């Protein structure tokens, strides 16, 4: 059974924890979303498609860097030209 002292301690701990809580509506610290009196802030986020394209491009760039370090420059240049010709043929 909770005594008034236990309730007081629990309330103080909850208030102390709220300092580290971020509201999901206004993105400010110190209160819960249901207590919020502020306006909702717009937070621009890239679409999932854009994130996937970016990750794919980064992966391709890493692969190219690995190939550059593995192959001599003239071999890499030949391969790059070959890929460009394939791309032009597809169009």
TrEMBL record:
Superkingdom of this protein's organism: Eukaryota
Residue stretches in coiled coil: none
MF (Gene Ontology): nucleic acid binding; zinc ion binding
Record protein name field: Zinc finger CCHC-type containing 10
Taxonomic source organism: Saimiri boliviensis boliviensis (Bolivian squirrel monkey)
Lineage: Eukaryota, Metazoa, Chordata, Craniata, Vertebrata
């Amino acid at each position: 059974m909770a005594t008034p002292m236990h309730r007081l301690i629990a309330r103080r701990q909850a208030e102390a924890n709220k300092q580290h809580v971020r509201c999901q509506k206004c993105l400010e610290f110190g209160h819960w979303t249901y207590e919020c009196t502020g306006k909702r802030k717009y937070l621009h986020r890239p679409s999932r498609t854009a994130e996937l394209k970016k990750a794919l491009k980064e992966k391709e760039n890493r692969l190219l860097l690995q190939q550059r370090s593995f192959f001599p420059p003239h071999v890499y240049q030949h391969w790059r030209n070959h890929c460009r010709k394939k791309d032009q043929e597809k169009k």
